[in-house]
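Practice problem: predict the structure.
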Amino acid sequence: CQLRHKEATALYTGDKLHRRGVNSLKASGEEQGSTNPAAQTGVMVALFPPESVAKQIALEGGEPVEELHVTIGYLGDIDDVSQHVSEQELVDRIRLWAPTTDVQEGVYSGKGLFVGEDLPGGSCTILTVDINTLPQFHRHLVDVVNGLGNGTALVRSNHGFTAHTTLAYGDRLADVQIDEPIPVRFEQISVVWGSSRTDITLG
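Answer:
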């Protein structure tokens, strides 16, 4: 749903950065990558669910298991972001901040659609994540990242923060089976810079 964020067509705070097989996450060479045409071109800070949870919520033919995430802050395309901050500067700043905050724990508890003419298939299918500390976590993270911009707001703020994970592009609501809340515990925050990902422990 990154295109939706980029074009300011709906309620969303990011989701451009789909990568494959980075760092410790392994993708089988036969697995289909993200259907988002803007893949591997942007910068974000995000929470990735544990593999066991990601496998539980993934849809067949949807976004790859290792790419499912909750975007906390989307900064934009690498070419634009790198004019203000380097990947190492961003990683170092998040490393300083992460020990001062808490592990984020809650549930995946709802499903829905984001719609927009710029989305592949006209929509994307999502799961919402309910964590009562996440709004404050998001605000703090935005402040930390924007502090690197020397007066320039680095995190995109076109819309309000709607915590979710994109499962697939197009309307796949009928395929989403969530009969009860699915517990999830995020122990790391990740800096994604194009195809590079750095995982940093929280707390």
